[in-house]
Specification:
With 492 residues, the chain is mainly beta. It has 5 helices and 21 strands. The protein has an 18-stranded antiparallel β-barrel. The longest helix has 14 residues, at 429-442.
Length: 492
């Protein structure tokens, strides 16, 4: 019954598309490399409303597959198979208004996850629930998104809302279950002045997750660790405390300057702040940790047939641990907090994109830095990398009704420096193994090869398409990764 409602919602969204998409120019505009130039500006819904000149919608089924010979990040597993159904629509209603939407349903499996029993690892790490056993995890996701923009004289205004619901679970011990919900609201406005759009946007998000681990065979119970960063855990509440709740959210401010003719200087700046609070909810409610994230994201350059732009992003993650007193009852005093964990991430790059009629090419070079520290006992893990990436895209028409899109990407990330400080003498063998594995893959070199082929066939009022990706990644930590993607659908 639940899946029937999802399919009905997808079809209702498709029914809103009343215009047929032009074959060549529309596909190139919406899928070409050149659209990456303004992808950050599209976070502002006012600018998203003028991002494309044409209407384009697609309904498709897809499957993503990945296999790693050895898990690069054990908390994410060593592979997955994730089938999904998607619908995307971008509608130019008239010269003054635009609407867009997205809906998707995914239900698949992530394989051999270890040291993680919590959903949304990338968002909440290192403050997760973890054990040494793990296993395969079923992952179900629902996403709904909709936006609207209006052009009034020299003003653009827009609004967008996105809702995501995730359900991850395992039906063998340890039986983790994570139910996460996130709601994001974006508002934006822009004014035309001196041949530019000067835009301001606001984004607010609310997040909640319930996370539990259960054992049906008491003889098979293993400890669940309340992880606190770099292989540490909150020992007092680790072991048999297996019910958590996360509450949080954040805000972002967006600033953009984009040319009206899309052939001039542009700039983007985003400032973000978020907080995620972890509580034990087993028998009593008790605060454990708070994770704070502050981020700055910037992009500036020249937009045109030859686009050149620079990116820089900085993210600071810091974590507070609550000092909990003792009590004879189930009410424990919160004596204060200590900031124990810090993580600083820097990512800079320079990108060029040249867009011709039948082909496009993108080059990117950059630098990445990731430094994590834990106050006491002192722990530190640091790694820096330089990377280079080359992507080529071509468009070919075997017949008047068929368009082939081919993409080839080659990338290499090379480790420059790294260091690790750990109190190995006071760590268990399992935690030592985990720390060394994490460090080996954090400092490693990576080489990626990715090939993509898409075929579009246009009929009278709609089109058919199929696309396929194949990827290979080799890692200097004596591991490799294979990945694949297949999708089929219709365009409107």
């Amino acid at each position: 019954m639940r899946n029937r409602h999802i399919i009905t919602a997808l079809l209702m969204l498709v029914s809103l598309t009343s215009h047929a998409a032009d074959t060549d120019s529309t596909l190139v505009e919406h899928t070409g490399l050149w659209q990456r130039v303004g992808e950050l500006s599209c976070q502002n819904p006012a600018l998203h409303g003028i991002a494309y000149r044409t209407t384009f919608s697609q309904l498709y089924l897809q499957a993503d597959w990945q296999h790693q010979s050895l898990a690069f990040i054990p908390e994410k597993g060593d592979g997955y198979l994730l089938p999904a159904a998607h619908v995307d629509t971008y509608l130019r209603l008239n010269d003054h208004s635009t609407a867009w939407g997205h809906a998707s349903y995914m239900n698949g499996q992530q394989r051999h996850i270890r040291w993680n029993s919590t959903s949304d690892y990338d968002l909440l790490e290192p403050y997760i629930l973890a054990d040494t056993v793990g296993g395969d995890t079923q992952h179900e996701r629902y996403v709904f998104e909709g936006g609207y923009a209006l052009h009034m004289d020299s003003w653009l205004i827009g609004a967008e809302m996105l809702f995501r619901a995730d359900h991850e679970y395992r039906d063998i011990d340890p039986r983790m279950r994570g139910i996460a919900n996130e709601l994001i609201l974006r508002l934006g406005a822009s004014r035309q002045w001196c041949h530019y759009h000067w835009a301001f946007g606001f984004e607010g998000s609310v997040y909640k997750q319930r996370n539990t681990v259960e054992f049906y065979r008491e003889l098979g119970v293993v400890p669940e660790y309340q992880m606190t960063g770099l292989g540490t855990d909150y020992a007092r509440f680790s072991g048999d405390k297996r019910a958590l709740q996360y509450n949080g959210g954040g805000i972002r401010l967006l600033f953009d300057v984009t040319p009206q003719q899309k052939d001039d200087f542009f700039a983007h700046l985003a400032l973000g702040e978020s907080r995620y609070h972890r509580m034990v909810t087993e028998n009593y409610i008790l605060p454990l940790t708070d994770l704070y994230t502050h981020s700055i994201e910037g992009r500036a350059g020249l937009m045109g047939p030859l686009s050149v732009y620079a990116d820089i992003s900085y993210t600071k993650r810091s974590g507070d641990e609550h000092i909990i007193g003792t009590s004879a009852t189930t009410s424990f005093p919160d004596l204060g907090v200590l900031t124990m964990y810090k993580n600083h991430r820097v990512n800079t790059s320079l990108t060029t994109i040249y867009a011709a009629t039948h082909w496009q090419i993108e080059t990117r070079v950059g630098y990445q830095s990731d430094r994590q520290t834990y106050a006491y006992p002192e722990r530190c893990m640091n790694s820096t990398h330089a990377f280079v990436e080359l992507t080529g895209m071509t468009f070919h028409k075997p017949t008047n009704q068929m368009l082939l899109t081919c993409v080839l990407t080659v990338a290499h990330r090379h480790g420059l420096s790294s260091d690790l400080t750990m109190p190995f003498a006071n760590m268990s063998s399992a935690f030592i193994e985990k720390a060394r594995h994490t460090y080996a893959f954090a400092k490693a070199d990576y080489t990626d090869l990715l090939a993509h082929l898409r075929c579009d066939y246009q009929l009278k009022d709609y089109g058919l398409f199929a696309s396929m990706n194949a990827g290979y990644t080799t890692c200097s930590a004596d591991a490799h990764q294979l990945s694949g993607h297949l999708s089929i659908g219709i365009t409107f």
